[in-house]
Amino acid sequence: MKLHDVDVAVIGAGPAGMAAAIRAREAGAEKVVLMERAEELGGLLHQCVHNGFGLLYFNEDLTGPEYGHRFIEKALDTGVTPLLETMVVRLGEDRQIGAVNTKEGFITFRPKSIVLAMGCRERSRGALNIPGTRPAGVLTAGTAQRYVNVEGFVPGKKVVILGSGDIGMIMARRLTLEGARVEAVVEILPYIGGLIRNEVQCLHDFDIPLFLNHTVTQIHGEERVEAVTVAQVNGNRQPVAGTQRTIACDTLLLSVGLIPENELSIMAGVRLDPVTGGARVDETRQTNIPGVFAGGNVLHVHDLVDNVSWESEMAGESAARFALEGKQKESGKIVVRAGRNIRYVVPQTISGRRDTTLYMRVNEPEETVRIKVGDIMTKGVRAVKPSEMLKIELSAEKLGKLREGTKEITVDCEKRGGK
Amino acid sequence: MSRVETEVLIIGGGIGGAAIARELSRYTADATLVEKGADVGQGITKYSSTIMCQGANVLEFRSEYHNSRLVWAGMPLMEPLCRELDVPFKRIGSLELVENQAGMRHPEKMMRRFKDWHGKYLPSDIEPLQFIDRDTLRAWEPNVDKKYIGAVYDPNIAVNDPVRLTIALVDNAKKNGINVLLETEVLDIKAGTDGFEVWTNNGSIACRYIINAAGEYVGKIAQMVDADDFAMYPVKSYQAVLDKKVGGLINRMVLATGSGMVSPTIHGNLFFGISPGSQRLGKAHDHSTDKKLADTALRHAQELVPAVSAADIINSFVGFIVFRNFEIGWHECTVGVSRWVPRFINASIGFPGICAAPGVAKEMIDILTRQGLRLAENPRFDPYEKAMPDFSDLSDEEKKELIARDPRYGHVVCRCETVTEGEIVEAIRRGARTLDGVKFRCRPGMGRCQGGFCGPRVTRILARELGISEEEVTKKGGESRNLLYKGKELLEAHQ
Ligand SMILES: Cc1cc2nc3c(=O)[nH]c(=O)nc-3n(C[C@H](O)[C@H](O)[C@H](O)COP(=O)(O)OP(=O)(O)OC[C@H]3O[C@@H](n4cnc5c(N)ncnc54)[C@H](O)[C@@H]3O)c2cc1C
Description:
heterodimer; A: 419 residues; alpha/beta; FAD/NAD(P)-binding domain; 3 domains; five-stranded parallel sheet; 9 helices; 29 strands; 22% helix; B: 495 residues; alpha+beta; nine-stranded mixed sheet; eight-stranded mixed sheet; 14 helices; 29% helix; 23% strand; globular; binds flavin-adenine dinucleotide
């Protein structure tokens, strides 16, 4: 494949990468390559055989593969060039890409612009430092999902799940349907880590016990997991003496968070936001490196694929424009700060000149609040939770109310009503 | 059930047994090494801190200890050994930090004694110790805590990969004529008048000499023939490996007496552990980590290098150091013929046993000869091994060439460590039979996601290459399967 004249290279062909590549073509970029290490486009969507995809984007309730398929078709229809079974192993500060595949060997090329769409990875046992032995049968929920849904194997028949992330809860249901028994879902926080709809549809509907304020304090078993010790935790998340109990099981699944996969971004000199683990971007989704954009879970972990697609379309469009115009018009930079009970806001900087959507998460659950963006807008929200991303639309008109020369605005989540 | 006859039986495929087997292969010895695990190097050796060429700290290593003499003998041997076997080895140097003026007595005494002993007890071809002041310390290691006023610099200290070294030693021993039996556990031994009868899970073995290099289990093996003229104290120690992204925090191993140590590894990670002085007596063979040990180790590490963070830990584990005498502590080992059973030789190589192993192997030849074993030189002895390709380490041109030769090197299977299918297939060709076997040969699953991504892929390749089903693939042999059932199997069982 000739790669000397690539306009936009998109790295990763999950929902983010596909949406970015399609939009880049639609926005007029001539040659858009979509680089993917797997044999096919679609990324993790293939193993997400459950439904709940596309409720916002298509107004339909689709499974992961169905949602993916629509984008795969569209990518091919719009003339995106897939570059499959190709792993990007290097990214230079000058946008030089180094990749390997079995056919061409080691390839290097320099596209006019790049969209980072590498997604995220799961936190592992090592990162949690769970005490105990090191037997087989400790897996992340996503790995188990791949085994069950793609490879056709069931890891075990008595399962404990640590963490109540969405994949964990979905796997609790999936394994139950496969005939395994999920003994417990154990969550260290006082609230679940995933969406309410998954708590209802995956745990309650299947009578799977959920233990909030609990954690796994020890793993037992030499060759294969034999049991785990579970204990209640106090306000500092430390185990409470006397509350330990041992649950016999052959499998421990971990669903304890996702981490944006930014090794290539770091190589390229992209500046990361320590809170999101992803790049710091402006509203066009450009990073600090001109011509390098990012979208989807590589930027910040989303809970709905629909938002991943939208956000990445923005990155794809910006990348196309950059490729066509050679550079981006320098737009005044206003820093968006996370204020009271706001964990982060993406984008981290805005120009204040275009319609802009702010994505954000809170630190703590709260009820009857309002989200206040500087002094240009407020929006009442009934309840906020760390697991559910908030979206605030700011029109160019509203942003026009900002005083000339504004350097930063703060987003706060404030209590409404009686103080 | 089979019956094997062999003149020398080595029990245990850790660094000790491996080094001895390879040394014996220089001679036309009829020797067999048995290892109960599915792979070699998976005992204490796997848990070591990988710090080589210790011994210059003459306040700890002393001429009256057999252990120290073995470590000193090994000092000049380790680098050439790694070169011959094409195992990575890197001199990094160490800094023993000094906190205040009162603490200066310690380095002064050490440096004085080193001068006296250099060339006398310690090999003359090792580098002298040096004291470096606060400014040099800052310049060399800007991330070491600012409270330290200087350090003793030991330029001899190096790191390597002890499991790879063990594998290469055993591969080389095999090539040079030593018989190696894996998944063969010694269950019982009977001493006869001029030999031993040994029962294993795989049949029996008749032999004349036994070298007991069973690591944590030396006591158990020795008891089988009442040769346990020593007691074993298992001492629990904890280590944690940090993400490569913080691998550059320090360039040399740093340590402080009585607390911990932090060091770069040969593979570009960082790791920390508790120094042997401050460890606890553990329950034998209980390899579980516990929170207290983990917290203490982290605190110690942060004292040395404040930027060390729990958030960057990608793996942690517990290992045992076997003390022969709790009072002498790690300073002594048990290498020699049993006082009561002739031709039964214990090789409990202690701490730091990997440093000592080349010295132990040389000494073992003398011990065996003195016990009556006749050894003639092996005319076909070939000391060299060639490491398998390490894709991530190659230049772009070399990568291209390799993929052109074998396209499987163009298929990256482990994204964190950039390991290709070609390497995994080669590791299996060289003897890997388990996920850990592949992991310790070419590192898929050693990175920050700890096999989350590549696990299913490596499982598939192992199954394909070994001609077994994916459920039969194990993590480390025995019952350590990751996948217990086929899809729908549990549902059918319910019907
Ligand atoms: C935390 C820690 C850090 C360390 N750091 C260092 C360091 O930095 N530098 C250094 O030089 N040393 C270090 N050491 C010490 C070093 O790791 C050991 O001295 C060395 O690995 C011991 O090797 P070995 O061959 O005696 O034992 P092992 O590696 O345990 O090998 C013994 C083998 O015998 C096998 N076996 C046991 N019973 C049977 C049986 N019945 N039948 C068949 N096979 C059997 C076992 O499966 C095992 O593979 C460290 C040790 C620990 C615990």
